[in-house]
Design brief:
Length: 307
């Protein structure tokens, strides 16, 4: 009789204990989740850093073979392309390199199968994954695999305010064919000259971490964005809203928008590879003049080693 009377009480007590355990587990999960997310981002950031290291080494191996840096673009009609195809032999992609037609535009039908191949080396793991996007150049439409890494090809000289550099605002680590950039041309130092950085997330437009409902404001959205295309951009400085163009006093230099700025999905900054093969994390607090100084090859700026 005693056992029968006490049974409901034990059941009720067990239910209370279960609810307490569930509540404790919920609290622990909420406390651990940020740590787990931070650990995952740290791993993705390390993979992204390794991508940049491989790209920088490929560029240096290209320079060793051809005595010049890879061309940032070939704009000649019939074999238009960016810097991506040029380094294929040096990133363990000999098969794709063998199929790629350098005597055709990157978006030509003969290269359709090649540009549709998504290469992890050109994708940041913290971004939005593999993406296919339309390429529309000179009325020719094709589909290509997106790439998150871009090289700077110039800066807004009218906003920079330095006459000596304003006349040479396109002097960067890579140059357009038929010009060839020699290492000896980089008088600012290889360790202080940016080669490639992030402009992740295309074809979508992102401003300050938020995807926009339309990519109408994304400059050259239909011809820039796939890894074999013209993966270069004019560096610009922005205001606090992340989209209004600003001068040297601009408050936003990194992670403003992925239209004409350095942009990543890493909290606090973005990765960049330098000509000497080093990789650095550029913080969102980076000064505008230092950022532009890292882009130019002969501005003779004094760059703090802790940039």
């Amino acid at each position: 009789m005693t056992s029968t009377l006490n049974a409901p009480k034990r059941t009720a007590f067990t239910l209370v204990e279960l609810l307490v355990v569930i509540a404790v587990i919920g609290i622990l999960v909420s406390l651990l989740l940020p740590a787990v997310q931070a650990a995952r981002e740290a791993a993705r950031r390390m993979n992204c850093q390794n991508n940049f290291k491989q790209i920088a080494l490929a560029a240096l191996n290209y320079e060793s073979a051809y005595h010049a840096m890879p061309p940032r673009r070939n704009l000649s009609r019939g074999n238009r392309r960016g810097w991506g195809p040029s380094i294929l032999p040096f990133i363990e992609q000999p098969g794709l390199q063998g199929d790629y037609r350098f005597d055709r535009d990157f978006y030509a039908p003969e290269n359709a199968d090649n540009i549709a191949v998504s290469l992890p080396l050109f994708l940041c793991p913290s971004a939005t994954g593999e993406r296919q996007m339309e390429v529309l150049v000179s009325g020719v439409s094709s589909i290509g695999a997106a790439g998150d890494y871009f090289g700077p090809n110039s800066f807004r000289s009218d906003l920079y305010g330095t006459p000596s550099l304003s006349k040479n605002n396109r002097i960067t680590a890579m140059d357009d064919l038929p010009r060839r950039r020699k290492l000896a041309d980089i008088t600012d130092g290889l360790s202080h000259t940016m080669l490639v950085t992030e402009q992740a997330g295309r074809p979508d437009l992102y401003i300050r971490g938020r995807m926009q409902p339309s990519n109408a404001g994304l400059s050259q959205a239909t011809s820039w964005g796939t890894w074999p295309s013209f993966q270069v951009f004019q560096l610009q400085i922005f205001g606090a809203d992340g989209i209004t163009r600003d001068g040297p006093g601009g408050t936003c230099t990194i992670n403003c928008n992925n239209s004409q700025g350095v942009y990543s999905f890493h909290p606090g900054g973005a990765m960049a590879a330098f000509v000497d093969g080093s990789v650095h994390f550029l913080t969102e607090s980076l000064d505008a003049e230092i950022l532009i100084g890292l882009v130019t090859i002969n501005g003779h700026e004094i760059i703090n080693e802790e940039f």
